[in-house]
Here is the input.
Amino acid sequence: MAEDSHRSSVLFESPDRSLIVLDIPASLEESQVLPSQTPRRRIVSAEPPAAPYPTPEPSRYGGGDRSALTSPAAQLAELMTAATVSSALEDLSNSYSYSGPFHRDRLVQPQPQSSAAISVLPPLIPDKAKPLHGSVEALSDSFHNSAPKFDLVILDPPWPNRSVRRKKDNYATVSNLIEMSNLLLQIPLAAHLTPDGLVAVWITNKHSIHDFLTSPTGLFASWGLEFVTEWTWLKVAASGEPLYDIESTWRKPWEKLIIAKRIGSEKPETLKTKVIVAVPDVHSRKPNLRDLFQDVLGKDCLGLEIFARNLTAGWWSWGNEVLRFQQAEHWKDIE
Here is the structure.
């Protein structure tokens, strides 16, 4: 449709919108302007991986059979996700005869900038974006007193993860799920969600985290929510092949977005399971989902992103690193 002509981030979309090929940098560029406006800047990105990465060997993780340490429910969940993404790739190739492209041309910085050149200029704030720069603990009361009700809340929590704790420039991960519960329950989410609003949470591939959210005594229940569906981001190389072997025991080529609604509210008719096929960008950059959720909630939906690393035009964003990718060195004006 003409009104969606600006959505260059969507490289392919199945008729039922259950399967999408998305360009992550383009989705972020589109998020910097209001819906239906043309992006004014390009984001500096990483080179897309040309081919899948080698599958990690078990010996790197101390040896042994990981499946022996995984519950039957977790093994079943992994098998179901593997079947879902395999079916999506098969449909993409056979049913829709789509063989690419799987990413758009990227603006890649040839040399890293010196620290003296970084963050000298003020951050770039998109139109009608509202940044809350600070931690959940520090700003919870201020948020509760000033924030409106949102149609959509997206969270990307710092889940317990040993490999992430070794990296720099990330949200500090918590040690365990008890600490995570204490952190997330400080967010007055129920008071700031519209009656028909949705909550979407990025999770790692640990089944315990899925249970932490969706069990009868889990976080969603504490917020008065119930699980609706999930979207899967399938990470692929530039070739369109999964970034890791789908059958790999130790590293999965996907991340999941778990979506919930208020208990007893109507499920949006267009909210369905979705596979998003996308080539990763720099570490910690997720696809911007504003346009995909506007297909569900309407063009005027108001969103809040928590533990955000960038801003979205027209939305609120909250977190310690909320301006991380808004610094001028990450962007170049379109001439």
